[in-house]
Design a protein that fits this description.
By secondary structure, this protein is an all-alpha fold. The chain has helices at residues 2-17, 19-48, 51-68, 74-84, 90-123, 127-152, 156-205, 220-231, 235-242, 251-260, 275-288, and strands spanning 266-267, 270-271.
């Protein structure tokens, strides 16, 4: 009996010490904590901002989600190549993906700058808020690649730290600037600042990986083929990102209703038990304003 118990403890101990198992447990705990911060962010912002302002903020989030979902599947591509690469190739792989992320970030940033008048008119949002998305998306692409590298290297503790710092910082900085009187612009500014901090923290956690010369590093073909396969599965996520723009209630009020209506939460001190009541309130509010 003692021998069986000893073998069982040895077996369980080995499983717990396994990097993949331990990392998975860290990610579960870290993800749940991050969900709490994310929930608190919307509750706090929903109380600090006016309904119209909160709808504007959620419209910005939906626009960001719409854009990032178009390349979100690349995380699996990066993780696959990082986890399968030999140690001597990690620096080259990091350099290659970093350069591509900078190019993609510049393209997105310039695209937002050029389309800002149209987006501002379509969403009925101040153009300065749209322009603020330009550097935010640029930093977001770089952070996206760095997070994928941490995941591929099985550095789950550091990944969980970054994830929670990002969401907690978004809450703290956003609330701080809103309380100072900057309204939606303050919340968006908080997003930008915490994105910069997150990139700096991610690069610190990857400080052992260097940028090197890769003039003859041939990997583009392999990445393209694998990306093409993974990209087939991204259409559902993209559809979910587009969906909030399809309702006729009015864009900003539609975002408020979708976030709060079905949960019976508060909108400007109004409590709704059903989404129908929230939509009715939104329509009446829009007629008066």
């Amino acid at each position: 009996m003692r021998r069986i118990s000893k073998k069982l403890r040895h077996y369980v101990g080995n499983k717990i010490r396994n990097p993949l198992f331990a990392g998975s447990m860290v990610m579960i705990v870290g993800s749940n904590l991050a969900n709490i911060f994310s929930y608190l962010y919307h509750v706090v912002m929903g109380r600090l901002l006016q309904p119209f302002e909160y709808g504007t903020l959620v419209a910005l989030f939906s626009l960001i989600t719409l854009i990032t979902s178009s390349y979100g599947f690349l995380a699996l591509v990066i993780v696959k190549f990082v986890s399968a690469s030999e140690e001597k190739d990690i620096n080259k792989l990091f350099t290659w993906f970093t350069r591509k992320s900078v190019i993609l970030g510049v393209i997105l940033a310039v695209g937002i700058l050029l389309s800002s008048p149209f987006l501002s008119s379509f969403l009925d949002i101040d153009i300065f808020l749209i322009l603020l998305l330009s550097p935010l998306l640029f930093m977001g692409v770089i952070a996206f690649v760095y997070r994928s590298f941490l995941q591929g290297l099985l550095r789950f503790v550091k990944l969980a730290i970054v994830m929670n710092v990002n969401l907690a910082g978004r809450l703290i900085l956003g609330a701080f600037f809103v309380l100072l009187g900057y309204s939606v612009f303050g919340a968006a500014l908080g997003l930008l600042l915490i994105s910069i901090i997150s990139v700096m923290l991610l690069r610190y956690f990857l400080k052992d990986i260097k940028i090197v010369n890769i003039k003859r590093y041939r990997i583009a073909g392999k990445v393209f083929n694998y990306t093409k396969e993974r990209g087939k599965y991204s259409s559902d996520d993209y559809h979910l990102s587009v969906k909030p723009f399809q309702y006729p209630v009015g864009l900003r009020w539609n975002f408020v209703v979708q976030t709060y209506g079905h949960n019976g939460e508060y909108i400007a001190d109004k409590t709704f038990k059903t989404k129908t009541q929230a939509v009715k309130y939104a329509k009446n509010y829009m007629k008066k304003h």
